[in-house]
Specification:
alpha/beta, single chain, 8-stranded parallel sheet, 21% strand, globular
Length: 623
């Protein structure tokens, strides 16, 4: 890295255009861990992720396809569960060897990548993915009772139909909120809780970091592995919650207990809770619902609520529960806590130190809660960092519908009306991310770690009609915002085993740009691709200077790029010009200098002159 840019060995500024590989890596390969399946779900120690993101014998097919689409950068998913599912300190050597083989193969195709230790709302057993099941058992949870007690909404135990985008609501429910509080802040908020004699925070972080170190040890020496993410979309749990009687969290949908109600539900007390539903452009209250009528307990036999043990709530002499410390998680020693600065930042530094002990030059990709600013990073913090936030077209993602005239501002949650206003707002929203990297992290590079769209819009209408125009338009307006900010990015996602029926095999999400169900001709590298008119775009891979402007009009297929040259560089500027967009060829207009079309490589090589400081390139299709 050099300031806010990635550079190659020639000093050229890189624009990284990649994908997340892949969506189904969240679940086991054997037995099939698709979240819609219930049989054997809780047998969590006897699984294998060998085959995620795809069987090794399929690697050539998928890497060839991704390379031909211009994606030469990967955010490669692994999970803590995949590495250490069998028990604490027991690593799946077959999986680690498999990861090495797949990652090595990616390098053979000229791809660079970083490793993403992926999680969503802690674990498959709390409605997401990531941590092994034994972590929940270690703190005293009985995972089989999460659904009955409202501790989590889990696809495998809820069954079909699974409510749309319900899984993020688990962030504030008992299981995930407790685990994240313990992981990041156990020393402050649960000091009495020890596992095998070790404080819970140290125990959980030690096992997590050691698990990811196993991957780093296997991949050490592979030059195209540029670094490691600290953790996908970390959550604060209850940390910073000002009033446990108040609802909150990432999202309120369906039955939404307050944190205090969640604690009582977990302790076996029925609760009448508020329910919420999606409106046209907002979330609306939808009555109430009685949870845990059978008064089951989320804790294992002989275990009691961790938060009751720490004085957050208790029963009085008459057996009536009372909330004793509504602001328990908001202050420590009289000081208001800041999750990002006080808890995520120390963890990220510990993680970076552990990775740098194995790979001294590895880049460390920093994430914080979605929509929140990163911590302030100073000279005493870990070096070689990259800011890797996520951003989605929120209305398309949550509504599974595309409206060219209506969108949502992800920061303010206010509606945006009109195509021009949407384009302006999306560009500004992404500009805020770059500003955060500048102001909070010292001007490090910003890589958009996730963005994308669901392909099952309008109740999967395109799968019946073959008309993906809405998906193309939706994805294009996200790409336009990325191009307006000259952002490096990784599209979510490429799932080799996506299907129209079950999407990416996880919580009924369906965001893969490839599906065999759309593949009509296996000999055609593009067959099976979804919304390729928007996804496969020309861009400047390596610029002999500073990129200034970049745009692509998918209707007219006109690509424009401008940059300011660096006189110390001798290597040319290289652009990706996809055959998919220009099957009959293309014409090139340049402000100066010379160019060479390399059709076989889908590359345009441009050598600027020294007569002017700013250079422009325009590519048009030959009709």
């Amino acid at each position: 890295t050099d300031g806010s840019h990635f550079k190659d060995e020639h000093g050229r500024t890189l624009l990284l255009r990649g994908v997340n590989l892949g969506g189904s890596s969240k679940v086991p390969f054997m037995p099939n861990g698709a979240t819609s399946l219930n049989e054997g779900f809780f047998e969590h120690r006897h699984v294998s992720f060998v085959g995620r993101p795809f069987p090794l014998e399929e690697a050539d097919e998928h890497f060839t396809r991704l390379r031909s689409w211009g994606f030469t950068f990967l955010r490669f998913l692994v999970t803590w569960e995949a590495i250490e599912h069998a028990g604490p300190g027991i690593y799946d050597e077959a999986y680690l060897e498999y990861v090495y083989q797949v990652v090595k193969k990616a390098g053979d195709y000229g791809m660079s990548l970083f490793i993403d230790p992926h999680q969503d709302v802690w674990s498959r057993f709390s409605g997401g993915d990531g941590a092994p099941g034994w972590t929940l058992e270690a703190v005293g949870f009985d995972m089989t009772r999460f659904s009955a007690t409202g501790a989590a909404v889990v696809h495998a135990t809820h069954g079909d139909p699974f409510p749309r985008m319900i899984w993020p609501t688990n962030s504030s429910k008992l299981a995930a909120a407790t685990m994240f509080t313990l992981f990041f802040g156990g020393d402050d908020f649960a000091p009495a809780l020890k596992i095998e004699g070790e404080p819970v925070q140290a125990y959980l972080q030690r096992h997590y970091i050691h698990a990811i170190q196993q991957v780093a040890l296997r991949l050490k020496g592979l030059p195209h592995v540029i670094g490691y993410d600290t953790m996908n979309e970390p959550l604060r749990g209850y940390i910073g919650w000002r009033d446990l009687n108040a609802a909150g969290g990432l999202l309120s949908l369906g039955a939404s207990p307050t944190p205090y109600q969640s604690m009582l539900l977990g302790a076996g007390l029925s609760q009448e809770v508020d329910c919420w539903k999606l409106g046209i452009a907002s979330i609306k209250r939808d009555g109430t619902r009685l949870l845990n009528p059978e008064q089951q307990c989320a804790w294992r036999e002989g275990q009691h609520c961790i938060w009751r043990q720490h004085g957050v709530w208790d029963f009085d002499a008459a057996g009536i529960p009372h909330l004793l410390r509504p602001d328990y998680f908001a202050q420590v020693n009289g000081r208001t806590v800041d999750f990002s600065q006080d808890y995520y930042r120390p963890f990220a530094n510990r993680f970076a130190e552990a990775i740098h002990a194995i790979d001294t030059n590895a880049l460390i990709f920093i994430e914080t809660e979605t929509g929140k600013a990163p911590p302030h990073w100073g000279a005493d913090d870990a070096p070689y960092i990259v800011y890797a936030p996520h951003w989605y077209d929120a209305m398309v993602l949550f509504k599974k519908d595309y409206n060219p005239f209506l969108a949502i501002d992800a920061r303010s949650t206010k509606p945006i009306v009109g195509p021009a206003a949407i384009r302006t707002s999306f560009a500004k929203q992404l500009a805020f991310l770059k500003r955060d990297a500048s102001e909070q992290l010292g001007g490090v590079p910003t890589l958009l770690g996730e963005f994308g769209i669901p392909f099952d819009l309008k109740e999967k209408q395109a799968y019946r009609t073959g008309d993906f125009r809405a998906q193309v338009k939706a994805l294009d307006r996200s790409f336009q915002a990325i191009e307006a900010n000259l952002l490096d990015c990784a599209l979510w996602n490429y799932a080799s085993d996506n299907s129209n029926e079950r999407g990416d095999l996880w919580n009924d999400e369906d965001l893969s740009i490839f599906s065999h169900d759309q593949q009509t001709n296996p000999k055609d590298i593009n067959s099976g691709g979804r919304a390729l008119q928007a996804a496969v775009r020309p861009y400047a891979r390596a610029t002999a200077g500073e990129p200034l402007r970049l745009s692509f009009d998918i209707k007219r297929r006109i690509f424009e790029f401008a940059f300011r040259h660096d006189s110390s560089l001798t290597a040319p500027t290289e652009l990706f010009i996809p055959r998919f967009q220009y099957p009959r060829g293309y014409s090139v207009e340049v402000s100066d200098g010379t160019f060479e079309m390399q059709y076989d490589r889908q590359a345009l090589i441009y050598r600027h002159s020294m007569e002017r400081e700013e250079h422009t390139i325009r590519v048009r299709p030959i009709r």
